[in-house]
Amino acid sequence: MIEHSDLLIDWSRAQFALTALYHWLFVPLTLGLTFIVAIMESIYVKTGDEWWKETTKFWMGLLAINFAIGLATGIIMEFEFGTNWSNYSWIVGDIFGAPLAIEGLMAFFMESTFFAIMFFGWEKVSKRMHLTSTWLVAIGSNLSALWILVANGWMQHPVGMHFNPDTARNEMEDFWAVFFNPNAVSKFLHTVSSGYVLASLFVIGVSAWYLLKKREVLFAKRSIIVASSFGLITSFFLLMSGDESAFNVAQKQPMKLAAMEGVYKGENKAGIVAIGLLDPEKVLGDEKDPFIFKLEIPNALSFLGYHSLSAFVPGVHDLVYGNEKHKIMSVIEKMQKGKLAVGALSDYKKYKKENNPQKAKEALAIFEQNQAYMGYGYLKKPEDAVPNVALTFYSFHTMVGLGTWFLVLFIMTLYFSMINEIEKKRWLLRLMLMTLPLGYVAQEAGWIVAEAGRQPWAIQDLLPVGMAASNVSSTSVMITFWLFAVLFTGLLIAEIKIMFTQIKIGPEGEH
Amino acid sequence: MKFSKKIFLFYVEGFQSMKLGKRLWLLIVIKLFVLFVIIKCLFFPNFLATHFETDAQRAEHVLQQLTTRK
Q1: What is the crossing angle of helices A50-70 and A474-505, to 10°?
Q2: Distance between CA A444 and CA A27 in Å, rounded?
Q3: N or C: which end of chain B has fewer CB within 10 A?
Q4: How near does any CA of chain A get to the CA of B19, in Å?
């Protein structure tokens, strides 16, 4: 028997989390800033005003810095799949391979071709050709994100595949089911729109700095109008796609929703906690109130999760120990089915080796009956099916709280810009500048909700992270963790330094 | 031929006229070297590719993990 140490799994998870979180510092700005420069260039082409061309070029320069530093940071996750998560990589098979291959090709061809025209082609191609290239870079970079999120959405809600017990791989049966997986669609829309909001915060934050320094006033004011309009529109889009995401989570990952809201005991007409402090002493199964204090919006969670004000929202307790009234199967029962699936897979393998087709067929039938719960067969106790509630709850509320603040900020900046008083409102300019890092906090919090909230699963219900990991030395994973921590921190410092230098030079400087 | 030459010159002139971009490209080249040559080769061998020769062996290994790992 092979036993993986918790230490190895923890280091493997920590390393993946570190690379994903660092990678995600660079990606959303690219996703959003490409659209903002495309809008600015469109204004230039429409008006013929050379001043907009210079403005576009300045923000394009900052986009280039972010793109260059962030480039290939995501590739490390693919290295990790092969080394630390080899079981997972094998089992996901072509479900992951196909979208990632399309992403690689699309990113390479669209970005290398049109990026070059965007940066080198100002004086070499026509205005319209250049503008088309800029828009294609924006669309292309967002389409790259689409394929990554299709793969991620499948992990959260696996559909359109069949597990082959002979090869131990999931084989794609229905590409469109994978592509139009509701979880993937809502995740894509929510993720890219969060990138648009971050990019808007970036533009208004940098512009606010110029206004505070009483520099580049016209440039900053015009940039703020474009970014706050874009930010306001995309904030509403972010809100709607967030609602859709929460609805999908409620249907497919109810444990994640329970953790996001700190719901231990399910109830009808469940409210959303607007502000709350969880009791760290709370243990699953005790009678303690999970909150030290909370401010709740009545019925909102029932509506958000099930689009009905009186719907029942299951809590962690209902999901772990079952709830007969609401026909919720307990994790214990799922574990029994999971163990049947694992045992049947083992028998199938044995009988195939013994050349006993009848027995193999019987084992396969048992496996297929219980396959949907296979992952539960690897859990040691029912409580292992519960993610870290505090981490998920606080990350979710940080993300939502900041998202709400960004919306308010965009309304204020747009309003004061429209009445041409933005440069007089120094308190608002300071808020705009201070909000920029909060945009990144919200981005990372969102990913923590998505990934920590779905634990213990690498593939929802089918494969827990413990089973997904390779049998490698925990020391080597620990060493590479620190290697990446140093490398990425260096890259981040380089980005901030180059970015600050370029911002200080301003739009009149080198591009 | 003329078209491919035009594209070639487009890139060459583009790179030559870069200011900030030259520093960024240097950074990209160094980073790609560190990622692909040092990190990938020394620290991140593909576990299944290096430990097993055929897909059948890899499948057998993963199946064994799925059915025997505690």
Answers
A1: 160
A2: 11
A3: N
A4: 6
Taking only the tens place, the pLDDT of each residue in A232-255 is: 999 999 999 999 999 999 999 999
Distance between CA atoms of A213 and A365, rounded to whole angstroms?
A: 72
Asked whether the beta carbons of A386 and A284 are under 8 A apart, the reply is yes
Closest CA to A385 of A259, A248, A278, A216: A259
Count of alpha carbons within 13 Å of A414, Cβ hemisphere only? Answer: 16
In a domain, A399, yes or no: no
Domain definitions of chain B by residue range: 2-68
β A161-164/A169-172 pair status = antiparallel
The ipTM is 0.79
Last residue of one domain, picked from the residues A275, A291, A321? A321
pLDDT tens-digit readout, A327-341: 999 999 999 999 999
- Residue A343: domain span: 331-378
β partners of residue A102: none
**d(Cα A11, Cα A218) in Å, to the nearest integer?**
50
For B54, nearest residue in chain A (alpha carbons): A167
Helix A6-47 crosses helix A127-156 at what angle (to 10 degrees)?
150
Question: Mind telling me how many Å the CA of A86 is from chain B's nearest CA?
Answer: 6
Question: DSSP letter string over A93-146?
Answer: HHHHHHHHHHHHHHIIIIIHHHHHHHHH-TTTS-HHHHHHHHHHHHHHHHHHHH
